[in-house]
Amino acid sequence: MEILNKAAIGVFGGSGFYNFLEDIDEVKVETPYGQTSDSVFIGQIGAHKVAFMPRHGRNHSIPPHLVNYRANVWAMKHLGCKRVISPCAAGSLQKDVKPGDFVICDQFVDWTDGRKTTFYEGPVVQHPSPADTYCPELRDLAIKTGKDLGIKIHDKGTVVVINGPRFSTKAESAFFTKQGWEVINMTAYPEAYLVKELNMCPLNISLITDYDAGLVGDVAPVSHDAVMEVFNNNVANLKSLLFTMIENIPEQQLNCDCCNSAKLDI
């Protein structure tokens, strides 16, 4: 893979994260894995060049189970990214994780089906460890930044990733809650693990929008409209956390070994 020097940090998220920046460059990337969700939009935050891509497309036209995660992640690596931040809307499975809170996840559980989940399908085969997928350095910085900004932030949590586009049944949600998992989402896997496979640092920032299936909080079952209402009401906090954190990311990785996760033979 040819590595360009267009950006150092990648962000998967909606257009709300970059549409107010000046001097945005729109870059289309062709990949060996097919079409990306959209163009990549490159701008400046502090000392860093940052590449933004809306994972569902700029008009939110791609459902989670049809996102081409491999193409999206490959594009970030090709542009030169060393770290990739993945903010996402998510549901809560536990009472103490409330709508409007942020969770910096440290573990995931894969409950998806049929997704392309690795770059190593042969003839090169590798097994980068997912034991601690998320970058400890980025997690620490996100937690500190959130607390400094006065945002209610949980410093760890397990996200269970369901296939989508449907939400959970009450029976499924009750099962997930009983496992002790905190967060439920439809995009966190395989995105973060693919980032790890390409020796970049992954970070999940989950913005809690609802109690999943209404079980934990004894409220009405989740709807898409309700999710978007909470998300939009908290997008200012998410932007503040994301941009302040990016400004403070050191140029060199200091406290992680993400860059040595795999040998790059793809």
Structural write-up:
The chain has 266 residues and is of the alpha/beta class. It has a single domain (9-260), classed as Nucleoside phosphorylase domain (Rossmann fold). Helices cover 25% and strands 21% of the residues. The chain has five helices and eleven strands; from the N terminus they run ββββαβββαββαβαβα. It has helices spanning 69-78, 136-148, 170-178, 188-197, 224-247, and strands spanning 9-12, 25-27, 40-45, 48-53, 83-92, 102-103, 107-111, 153-154, 158-162, 183-185, 201-211. Strands 1, 2, 3, 4, 5, 6, 7, 8, 9, 10 and 11 form an eleven-stranded mixed beta sheet that branches. Helix 3 links the parallel strand 9 (158-162) and strand 10. Helix 1 runs parallel beside helix 4. It is globular, with a radius of gyration of 17 Å. It starts with 8 loop residues before the first strand and ends in a 19-residue tail after the last helix. The model has no long low-confidence stretch (mean pLDDT 91).
